[in-house]
Write a structure and sequence with these properties.
It is built from eight helices and eight strands; from the N terminus they run βββαβαααβαβαββαα. By secondary structure, it is of the alpha/beta class. It is globular and about 50 Å long.
């Protein structure tokens, strides 16, 4: 699937200006860059009409997630999965014991895991995740990464993962997209790009 060339301005200032890109199903694309590089704007522009083919089913998990005022399990069931599948998703994320709890009482990390379970229960052609593991502990992060990788392969979906972690990109991404000041500076195989960045901007960021 192909994205349009995306350009966005705020107050007369260009905050995003990237060319069209091709995203293949079954692959994970990590989007990296410093704060203010345009990562979240890139995600939002893709969601709001940035894909050429209007029939592409697109899912989006933003940085901030809000649970519905019902049990944790019922929140996951909203995705349309069976009770068995909801239990499986929650169990993998270490949330089985919280299934009957009011989702509004969850911590930040637990809310992130709930949101991930909820969106992974749906079938999309393109799934965009904005810093999905930022508030999770190490164990939950690693399990979430496995689930994201499996989703791309099992659902035959293209997954765009916005992350600050070069380690995360190295572990699960096929391609890396590096943005700097709203522009595309690098795009290539994730491991090759992380091991040997071609631009000084990417090199500095990845070495942090």
């Amino acid at each position: 699937m192909k994205s349009k060339a995306l350009k966005k301005e705020y107050g007369g200032r260009v905050v995003l200006d990237v060319p069209e890109m091709e995203f293949e199903k079954g692959r994970v694309y990590a989007v990296m860059g410093a704060n203010g590089s345009g990562k979240t704007t890139f995600a939002r522009e893709l969601v709001s009409g940035g894909i050429e083919d209007k029939s592409v089913r697109t899912g989006y998990m933003p940085q901030k997630n809000y649970p519905f005022r019902m049990s944790v399990k019922k929140n996951v069931l909203l995705s349309g999965v069976s009770e068995e599948e909801a239990d499986r998703l929650l169990s993998r994320l270490g949330m089985a014991q919280l299934a009957g709890e009011n989702a509004k009482k969850l911590s930040g990390g637990e809310t992130a895991k709930l949101a991930l379970a909820r969106i992974l229960g749906k079938g999309f052609d393109l799934l965009i995740l904005d810093e999905p593991t930022a508030s999770m502990d190490v164990e939950s992060t690693l399990e979430s990464e496995k689930m994201i990788r499996e989703y791309a392969e099992d659902k035959n979906a293209a997954v765009i993962l916005i992350t600050h972690s070069a380690g995360q990109a190295y572990r699960i991404a096929d391609e890396l997209i590096f943005l700097h000041k709203g522009m595309l500076f690098e795009k290539g195989p994730a491991k090759d790009t992380i091991d040997d960045p071609k631009t000084e901007e990417a090199r500095k960021f990845i070495s942090l």
